[in-house]
Amino acid sequence: MDPGGRLRPPVPPNRSERSTQVATQTAPPQAATPAPRVETRTRRRTPHLWAWRLAGYIFFVGSWMLLATYVFEVYILPSPTRVLSEMWEILGRGDFWENIYATLKHLFIGFTIAYVIGTAIGIAMGRSPYWDGFFHDYVMLALTTPGLVFALICVMIFGLSTWAPITAIVLTAFPHVTVNVVEGVRAIPRELQDMATSYGVDRRTQLRHIILPAVAPFLFTAVRYGFAIAWKITALTELFGGRDGVGIQIRVKFELFNMAGVLAWAFFLVTFALIMERVVLQRLERRFFRWRPKAFA
Amino acid sequence: MSTAELSRPTTEPRFARIRRALLTPRAARITAPVLFLIGWQLIAPLIPSRILPMPADVAEAMWEQLVDGTMVDAFSISILRLAAGFSVALVLGAVVGLAMGLSTRVEAFLHDFVIVGLTFPYLIWGLLVAMWFGFEGRGPFVVVVIAALPYVIINMAEGVRDVSKELRDMATSYDVPNARVLRHLVLPSLSPFFFASLRYGLANGWKGLVLAEVFAATSGAGYVINEMEEYGFFAGVIGFALWFALFSILVERLVFGRLSRRVFRWRSAAVRTEETRKVEPFEAMVD
Q1: Consecutive 10-residue runs of chain B (287 residues): their mean pLDDT?
Q2: A75-288 domain in CATH 1.10.3720.10?
Q3: Closest approach of chain B CAs to the CA of A84, in angstroms?
């Protein structure tokens, strides 16, 4: 289900601390017990893998540094240290928070609308072949059309307003939500539902104990993948015709040939997105679904 | 059984029959775009016409783009760039992905940077290559490589890990020649992942490409649509966007529909659904 997660190198060494900590908070005791067996295996392998990982960082950041210092001019490829100092300088300025706030506002309004619409369409498509046929081409088109096209059309129609980025986010993010929700609706175990119905279990209990547990992981994945698209299209639309936000700042820096500035703003955005995607959402997901057997995860 | 009962379906009221025909999923695929067109036609007059052009104007613009060759030129240039960039990404990604799948060290070395490659917006790559290669250089090609590469790498690495260890061991102990192991074990189990990397690599390469063409090219589909936007030729923009849409449908229906049926024809239906589910999430990671 989760390409990024499976790609992750074996569990970092401080995992054991974290899992016991979590276990003391809310976890049922049996959830924590099978863990140690896995821990010992990975811990033995961790040290040299960490060395390789570190080597990776040294290699990539080092070659960036060398290229920037000895080969390219600063307006072509600024060095990492220069980008860092630019980031530091931007942080100190007053317009940093203004722009971040504007971008986050677009992102969260747009993503919420996209999620609601995407879920509604997903449920309809998952339950009825008619709606499946109706929305199929829309979803497919929205998935495959480049973000640039949506950004340009939204800027064209809404001009320099908040609605341009928001609409562009809705158009690009909703199909990713829909695709996951459809999968989720189709994953509801019909046999269990039939059995519950014939044993006279009422709708609410069925919803709570059969439907929601089956759909929930997909709803969550939908958040993660929808979000991964949403923040990129936010910056893109802002760049082509926003009034405020990170995208506009990137455009201004680019027009001044200040590549360190472009990269500095880009790194703010990417850092925020990576923390949201890989740390906050993934961790929440793991916590929500800790009760599931490994095979489902 | 009486004849009256048999002929009942044909004697039911005509409107009921039509209604039933309209409620089939197949009809829905036609209803959807028709409703869209009607809605557009009704809404467009409410908004200043310069901003949201009428369907007829857009159709005219599309016809002009087709006749004067704008569309064909732009798309053929872009497709050539995509093909060139994607071939490089495929070769490079296959090598790196196989290495990552086979060795945990290589995986530890590269993993985080593959993720960065997956996350970094094409927008920024587009701006960077504009600075590196100028407005008429290799920029768009390079962005295709960068955009497609992580998807190829991840899928290839997954594919290698997916090759059944038991079957490999058995092949070794029965002295099956390497060529046959490759042909009958490794390649078949790699093929869905290869197919996924083709699909998502191409999709993302395409999205990165059109964006890069805005900043780092003076030709190609992305350049043309941005140009029309800047000149305020709005019917042209929407018309060109529809060409983009038709292009997607064409590729999706003709290439991927057929290709995936061919590649997976040996699989049972059950395995196929499991496989497609496995690779589904990559679809969600596009820009």
Answers
A1: 50 77 82 89 76 84 89 91 93 90 85 86 89 84 92 88 80 83 80 83 90 89 89 86 88 70 52 41 38
A2: yes
A3: 17
